[in-house]
Amino acid sequence: MPHYFIRKLEQFTKLSCDDRQALENAVCKRRTIAKHADIISEGDDPHHVNLILDGWACRYKHLDDGRRQIISLFVPGDLCDSHVYLLREMDHSIVALTPVRLAEISRAALEQVANDNVRVTKALWWNTLVTVAVQREWTVNLGQRTALERLGHLFCELFLRLRGVGLTDGPSYELPLTQVELADALGLSNVHINRTLQDLRRAGLIVLKGGRLTIPDFDALQRASLFNPNYLHIDREGRHFDADGSV
């Protein structure tokens, strides 16, 4: 069972046992991808949707001179675009930032699940809307926020996304990103990332040790980063209901 994916969808709409089984049945293949290997590359013909079961990945674009922009991050439970198979060819690449275990879902299987399961359809629509909202927020990050705000904002977002699928431990979570990857995601230099991490540490806003990030006071980091979690829609009323619609 891709349980992180189920947990993520149930932030938006409660699913029945049949809904969960239909999603499980939609998985046609599981693969393991090595760290730094492309899951799919720009120019490839996408035949299926990739679901991250374990590990971290990112969507990125390369410029002709080799510079890279990380456009979004994928954590366990994330779909790498639910309608990507509509494209004739990929206009971006997706790479594994850690060893990744993923599930492939075919176009036919995903459409069948959506057609036969109303709650799954609603949850997938909400998931798509939140994905687009996250992309908007990343644009604001790059265009308007300071370095400290960008980094703190990303840490707050990742904490809530990971907590939603059960991958936090109190105020902590695993953060397997390098400073280079953070720089590529936030439009900053490696040196600037290093200095900003030191600023956040000195202010007591984060503890980063051994690939694990701890946020001692989430409210304080939220204020310092101008972070408003409304775009994640974590208070969706649908998650409070049983699958039959009753409270």
UniProtKB/TrEMBL annotation:
Keyword DNA-binding listed: yes
SUPFAM superfamilies tied to this protein: cAMP-binding domain-like, Winged helix' DNA-binding domain
Record Pfam families: cNMP_binding, HTH_Crp_2
Protein name: HTH crp-type domain-containing protein
Gene Ontology MF term list: DNA binding
Keywords: DNA-binding, Transcription, Transcription regulation
Domain HTH crp-type: 145-219
Transmembrane segments: none
The keyword S-adenosyl-L-methionine appears for this protein: no
InterPro entries cross-referenced by the UniProt entry: cNMP-bd_dom (IPR000595), cNMP-bd_dom_sf (IPR018490), HTH_CRP (IPR012318), RmlC-like_jellyroll (IPR014710), WH-like_DNA-bd_sf (IPR036388), WH_DNA-bd_sf (IPR036390)
Organism: Methylobacterium bullatum
CDD domains documented for this protein: CAP_ED
Any Gene Ontology biological process: regulation of DNA-templated transcription
